[in-house]
Amino acid sequence: MKIKLYFSALLLNIVFSSCAQNASKIIIPTGDPKPVKGEAVAYFAEGCFWHTEIVFQSLYGVRDAVSGYAGGKSENPDYEMVTSGNTGHAETVKVYYDPSKISYQTLVDAFFASHDPTQVNRQGNDVGSQYRSVAFYSNDTEKKILENTIADLSARKKYTKKIATQITKLNMFYPAEDYHQEYILHHPDNGYVKNVNLPEYEHFRKTFKGRFKPSL
Question: For 158, which of 98, 153, 165, 186 could close a Cys bridge (C-beta 3.0–4.6 Å)?
């Protein structure tokens, strides 16, 4: 029995060591803080903003993605306030992109491809209104694209459940605390990053048909 337990522990150690090695080889996409003339911005919320940030920063034509909060009623919220679920904010990412390189439609497609839009007030084990699925629009053109995309996905029966994504006009976006920015890059050994964020990101890269940055 002791021998069996020894080999079981050894096997688990090998498995977890392999996972850690694979995760460390993933090149994490990062943003570029330098402003670019003529770029546009878009806002998306799809659960933990660490995940959302890396998804959009991996796309060709996206300069940067900033984690923050949107969709709530409180001014200048901080992380503790938002996680209480009482402010109405969702963990949101502000995406800076070049419209000549990537379209808003492609960003919307990436948004729906990188999370489960049928879940209500949650994504996986992240539960609460702050983790809800929201696409914030800034003008009527963006709103129409979002509505048409949801209608198309519903007509094609892409999901077995009804899409729960909210389409909401952006009111105010508040950047999150500095320690949340580029979180996955700075904390690759964090348990949540290794076991949730990075596997989700790898799945997105393998399944999404869009163009990714050549440096990754």
Answer: 153
